[in-house]
Amino acid sequence: ILGGGAGPRLYPLTKSRAKPAVPIGGAYRLIDVPMSNCLNSGISKMYILTQFNSVSLNRHLARTYNFGNGIMYGGNGFVEVLAATQTPGLGGKEWFQGTADAVRQYSWLFEDIKNKDVKDIIILSGDHLYRMDYMAFVDRHREVNADITVGCLPMDDERASDFGLMKIDSTGRIIEFSEKPEGDALKAMQVDTTILGLTAAEAAASPYIASMGIYVFKKSALISFLNTDYPKDNDFGGEIIPKAAADGFHVQAYLFNGYWEDIGTIKSFFEANLGLAKNPPQFEFY
User: Is the per-residue pLDDT at 286 higher than 80?
Assistant: First the structure.
């Protein structure tokens, strides 16, 4: 789980805390959403990567997810915080330079003895509000034998140009990426979303697919992308994944068609909190 964002657009809520430690819905923090999704999906091996203002995030994780000796999860579950430590790399001693670089600096952990049986790795963002069964995501990834599977949202004309969009072929394989396109470039990114399971009416209303910023990687592919194929690329969404697709690796789209909100600005934070008070609420914590 990527918890290193400084969250400047959420200032002053992020003045003394990391973005994933921002409170939501009263008693919770943003990081609780992906954590809860993991636990409810039966995933009990979690690393949280932290960088900016991480004191309150660390405190919250230690108090909330104390698994003790792991007996509750069959003895091998864990929640570990991985702080940015200026690990020497290609650019010398550096802090995390982006999403992929953060994972790269700790990629040696994937080959650690306690992770030797792990076949796939899910990369999650620490600041989105949604409920998702990650194992269905992983199962689809395994079913099609993909190197990378990208979680996507169906998107309408109005909001599509705010996101990184993707084009897919008739099997749901991603063949093209475009970052926040507008005008004719936007129209060119329309896809038939019935391929991913939408009804014809839903597909007509949402003819685009946008990346949610969550991914499943084959462990072997992830290690090779980070350290061998693209060692100088620091971002998953903008660099590594589009390059992997262009280089012929199998990059698959997986559609999530539920409530999803990126809590990136004060406005979206305010609206998401109000949304929790609706009856029925758009999102429930229990």
Answer: no
**Does an H or E element contain 209, and which?**
strand 208-218
Residues 152 and 46 grouped into a single domain: no
Phi, psi of 105 (to 5 degrees): -65, -20
Provide the residue range defining the domain that includes 167.
135-258
Considering the domain architecture, whether residues 6 and 97 belong to the same structural domain is answered as yes
Instruction: Please indicate, yes or no, whether residues 251 and 168 belong to a single structural domain of this protein.
Output: yes
H helix runs in the chain, sequence order: 32-40, 55-64, 99-105, 134-143, 157-160, 183-187, 200-205, 219-224, 241-246, 266-276
160 and 195 together in one domain: yes
Mean pLDDT of the chain: 86
Answer yes or no: is pLDDT of 85 > 80. Answer: no
| Claim to verify: residue 266 and residue 127 sit in the same structural domain | yes
Angle at 179 between CA 104 and CA 157, to 5 degrees: 135
Close Cβ partners of 75 (under 8 Å, ≥ 6 residues apart): 69
Q: Which two tokens stand for residue 193?
A: 């979303």
Specify whether the CB–CB gap between 29 and 23 falls below 8 A: yes
Number of domains in the chain: 2
Q: Residues 74, 156: one domain?
A: no
The reported pTM is 0.89
Residue 205 makes CB contacts below 8 A (sequence gap 6+) with 156
CA dist 108 and 3 (Å) reads 19
Q: Which residues contact 83 (CB under 8 A, 6 or more apart)?
A: 50, 51, 54
Shared domain for 211 and 271, answered yes or no, is no
